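quick one before i forget lol
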Amino acid sequence: QVQLQESGPGLVKPSQTLSLTCTVSGGSIATKYYYWIWIRQPPGKGLEWMGAMAYSGSTYYSPSLKSRTSISRDTSKNQFTLQLSSVTPEDTAVYYCARARVVITTTPPDRGQGTQVTVSS
């Protein structure tokens, strides 16, 4: 059973870069045909797909966030990372990492517990 755990700072200042890491156990991030996904949920709003990395290392981003988003991985640590630049208070949300067999989904079968990130000065 795969497990995912998000980690990173809970408070980020406006204009800075948000960086979150997802540590995966119980399965390799290089396993074929899986996508490793970042999703977020702002307060009072629905889930938003942000982007994904395929098992091959290819990346996919939401058009609305593409200019500010980067997903990378460290296969030796079985981790993948989200970076979101130039954050504003509108980026305040619970951020989730997840695994799925499709690249775009907000209801993946495997998901971390989520981590709250607040953007505030």
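fyi The mean pLDDT is 97.
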